[in-house]
Amino acid sequence: MNKSSDWIKTHCARMDHGGCGILVKVAANQIKAIKGDPDGYLNQGYICPKAMAAADKLNHPMRLKNPLKRIGARGQGKWQKISWNEALSIISENLLKIKKEYGARAVAFCQGMPKGLEHFVLIRLANIFGSPNVVAVQDVCHAPREISGLHTCGFYPVTDFHYPSQVVILWGSNLNATNEEGLICSLLHKQLLSGTDLIIIDPQKTEFAEKAKFWLQLKPGTDLALAIGFLQVIIQEKLYNQVFVEKFTHGFEELTRMVHRFSLTSIADITGVPEKLIQQSARCYAAAMPAALQWGNPIEHTYFAFDAARALVCLMAICGNLDVAGGNIWAHEPDILGLGQFVRADLIPDKRKNMIHAFYHTIPRLMTVPPTYFKKAVLEEIPYPVKAAYMQCTNPLLGYADSQGTYEALKKLDFLAVSDIIMTPTAALADVVLPAATQFEFDDIGHYGIGHGIILARPKVVDPPTLCRPDMMILNDLGKRLTDEKYWYQDSRGFLEAVLQPSGLSYEEFVNKGYLKGPDRFETYKSRGFKTPTGKVELVLSRAKKFNLSELPVLPADFAGFDPEYPLTLTSAKSRLFLHSSYRWLEKLRKKQPEPEVKIHPQTAKDYQINQGDMVNIETRQGCIIQRARISDIIRPGVVYADYGWWFPEKSEQELFAWQQSNYNILTTAKKVGREFGTPELKGLGCRLSPLDSMK
Ligand code: SF4
């Protein structure tokens, strides 16, 4: 354990991706205090309200402390406490039975936001078991950015805040509120103090917007059009990096023709951002060298996520900001075990052909099943039946688009096992529920496999309750029952050592270092070219035909579709207090925000006769929920910001904790999804409002 006086050094996790270095004070196996670690590589002392409340999870009355077996009907809330041996036997018997009857692919392994190594151990288990189906929400988080990057420039362009940038664009990313894939605000604030200019692209006025040189308050879901607007200004005014474009890009002429297909006036119309502001911001980004573009995951929340991500990589490229310090870099990994080896990809060579989404011809390299297609396999047996699921760190009833469809899919499964730290609406529908250990209770490695070129030490600081177990340990034990024992370790320490083995460090030595970072290498394309078929940044994709992709980013014809019956535009933003559907049960956080709130502009509120604090019906063509009105001019008229991820742990398990009442995904639909990633529409949906007078 790495100690700084009597404070133990570790890294935050599970409250989100994790990443902030923290110091934890412990006495008698109890956490007494938590504070930010000034030496934290990413946070430099910053700590958010979620982490401040993190210790409250450990002894919370809602904490699951026993394996449970369902003894009533699904969702009836009748459970029997069972031993670990019985729980693992029930799970393995059921999964093996389904494998025998329908094949291994009829078993899905589901993960929410990855928290640590558990995600990769789950993939390993699926691979060794023989199922190609690991279901994850990468369709709306990470995959469009990473995979579009790989296809366009050969790497995932990570924002570099460790070297100075002249200009930073936060494009749909509010680093004061969320740790966007391991990037929190500290390094950016430091840069702002030394004079870096900021451009904010966000439908709501964030704290960063107040400090920005330009704030572009775009309409939700119009990022692709705005990116094309930026490209147009920069190309038309010849502000791009001409040497880079000439030597290192493929398809600049075609890109030029594409962006000129639209007038800037029409782009201003679609996005709601005045032409002049688009011009000024584009000029500012193009003139800076280097400039960093921090892209948040709202750009991945529409069915044209691929085109939006592609357009932004093209923007980074033509301005010469790819692979330069202070721009968007290729983050090189330290000497650690490669992902493919860790997950034993070699044991399932036909995975790509057999994954559920192969049937839909999704983009190559998408290795997790989009939830929409998982549900179709369960409900309609397309392309083949899926009969069972093992889920960890996930709450699909709240987290997947189209919650009603998710409910039906979960109910239809022949067998469902869930590992979690409390009873969630999803766990309440399971056959077996396992009590997981939480972040402070086991040794882990953070940031493995997310492409940021860094791994973080997360040593355990206290023991878990007697019967709670780390997910890695559960999977290691399940693996021994489901597959050949030779693939598994004596205990889960084996996974940590395997990852670190190439570095030559033991886990203890790694903990003493705190983190491992890959080498800084910039502008490697100058000697080796880009890792694409043409060796250049592919503004036009050379393999577009082969993979049935669009050659260039495309603005869909129905982009600015307007539904007169649902004339308002619905969106949501990540909370500073909660992670997706997690932690409404932690009193410290809930006190700060007791109820879900929908932000409405004063003019819209007036039009719909809604007063501050009214309970409001929010309705789309898909469904209706209620949230408390907060009238605010930080958003534009006509835009509605509903809170995401709400359920009510204080309500009864028999009503599944009122999972429908205020759940944003009751409003979303998976009827139309992007072909590349199966991404549904989560942002920019048509909606309408009405007051719910009786509930004031
Ligand atoms: S931003 Fe995330 S990693 Fe950082 S302290 Fe908060 S919850 Fe932890």
Which terms summarize this structure?
about 700 residues, alpha/beta, binds iron/sulfur cluster, globular, 24 helices, 30 strands
Poorly predicted runs are: none
Supply Rg: 24 Å
Which outline best applies? globular
Task: Work out the helix count.
Answer: 24
Q: First CA to last CA: what distance?
A: 52 Å
How many strands?
30
Q: Estimate percent helicity.
A: 25-40%
Oligomer: single chain
Our estimate of the beta-strand percent is 15-25%
Structural class: alpha/beta
Q: List the ligand species.
A: iron/sulfur cluster
Strand order of the largest sheet: 6-5-18-17-16-7-8
Average predicted confidence as pLDDT: 95
Question: Largest sheet at a glance?
Answer: 7 strands, mixed
Could you explain the architecture of this structure?
Strands 6-5-18-17-16-7-8 form a 7-stranded mixed sheet, with helices on one face. The model has no long low-confidence stretch (mean pLDDT 95). 29% of the residues lie in helices and 18% in strands. 59% of the residues are buried. With 696 residues, the protein is α/β, with parallel strands linked by helices. The longest helix has 19 residues. The chain starts with a strand and ends in a 5-residue tail after the last strand. The radius of gyration is 24 Å and the shape is globular. It contains 24 helices and 30 strands. Iron/sulfur cluster binds next to α1.
